[in-house]
Give the backbone structure.
Amino acid sequence: MAIDTKMKILIVDDFSTMRRIIKNLLRDLGFTNTDEADDGITALPMLQTGKFDFLVTDWNMPGMQGIDLLKHVRADEKLASMPVLMVTAEQKREQIVEAAQAGVNGYIVKPFTAQTLKEKLDKIFERIDG
Amino acid sequence: MDSSVMEQEQSLLSNENITKAKELISFMEAGELEKAQDCIDDLAEIRENEMYQEIGKLTRELHDSINTFGLDDRLADIASDEIPDARQRLAHVITMTDEAANNTLAAVEDSMPLCDQLLSETQNIETEWKRFSNREITLTEFKELGGDLKNYFSTNISSAEKINENLTKVLMAQGFQDLTSQIIKRVISLVEEVETNMVNIIQLAGTKSNKSDLKEKTEEHGGLDGPVVPGLEASGTVSGQDEVDDLLSSLGF
C-alpha cells in the first residue's frame, strides 16, 4: 500500500507554533502539500473549495471549535468522507466519545510525539485502504 | 437637584409641619409661652421620627448587601479552590517551559559536536582531494584516501540522521507554547474575576447607592477543560495517548 504523499492537508489550530510543529512533522513524513487555518470559521470555506484531502484540527479554538468543524465536514456531502485527525489538549472521556460519535478518524492528545502522529496517520490510511 | 434634598424639602413643608408652625406663631403672639414650647417639642419629635426612619432604611440596605455578598459562593470558591488551583497551574507552566528549554538545549548540545566533526572531516577530505586533483598524491596516500572516504560517508550518514532526530526533538519541544498559553489564559480570566469582585467590595464599603452586581462565572472556554495539569485532573479525564487509544478501540476504532 502506498500512501499518496502529494495529498493536500489542512492544519487547523489557533496557535501558530503548533501549526508549524505539525506542518514540519508532516513534511518529515513526506507530506509537503499543506496549508493552515487558525479556526473552524476560516477552515470551512477553505475545505469547501474541494482542494483538500485530509484535515488535521485542534479542538479548542475561538470562533468555530474543532468539534463543530468536524460536524460541518461530516454534514457536507462533498466533504463527508474526508479523513479527520484531531490533535488536542482535551482529554475528557466524554469529549473523546463525542469526537468519535461525530466521526473523527483519529484522536491525538497534546503533548504528543512525532511517532504518535506517524502511527495515527498510518492507521487512518490503513483503514481507508482496507 | 439631588433627590434626597428634594425629599427633605418636601417633608419640611408637610401639612403637619406647617400646621404646627402656624400654631407656634399664634401661641407666641398671644404670649402663651408654655403652649409655644410644646409646639417646638412636637416639631422636634416629627424631625426625630424621620431620622429614625432613614437610619432604619440604611440599616436594611446594608444588611441586604452583606447578605447578598455572603450568599455568593463564587468568592468562597475562588479563595478556597481556584487560587490554589491557579498556583498549581502556574507551577506546571514553569515545569513545562523548563522541560522544553532543557530538551532543546540537550538536542543542541548533542548536535553541535556532530556538526564540528562533520566540518573538520570534510575539510580534511577536501585538502586530500585537492592534492589528488593536482596529482600530488602517492599511491599509498591514494589508498588511504579511499579508506578515509569510506569512513567519512558512513559517519556522515549516521551524523546527519542523528542531527535530524535532534532537530525533531527541538521542534516537538516548542509544543509547550500552545499548552502553557492555554493554562495562562485561564489564570488571567480568574484574575479578572477576582478584580471585578474586589471592585464590588470597594463599592459596597464606599457608598450606599452602588448596588453590587456580581459577575456570574461565565463559560469563557466553551465548557472545555484544556490541558491536564498534574494533580488537578478533572474527573473523567484520560491520562494520556494510550488511554485515548484504549477508549477509542473500545468504541470500535
User: Anything to note?
Assistant: Chain A touches chain B at residues 13, 15, 17-18, 20-21, 24-25, 28, 59-60, 65, 89-97, 100, 107-114, 116 (CB under 8 Å).
